[in-house]
Amino acid sequence: MAKFKTGAIVALKSGGPNMTAGPLTEIDYVTCFWFDQNQALQSVTLHEDLLIEATA
Predict the structure, then answer these.
(1) Mean pLDDT in the chain?
(2) Per the structure, how many domains does the chain have?
(3) I need a labelling partner for 56 at 20 to 30 A (CA). Which of 9, 14, 20, 29 fits?
(4) The domain containing residue 39 runs over which residues?
């Protein structure tokens, strides 16, 4: 079972911007989305063990 639901706000354990969790791409991998400083949509696929639920 996935650690994060689609739409959850997550962040890297090591820091960085808050991101929105997308669907699982493979077992235990989540595609995350965020807007950069130029308001361009960015995405990255990460293993869910690298992420934590972000606090507002």
Answers:
(1) 92
(2) 1
(3) 29
(4) 9-53
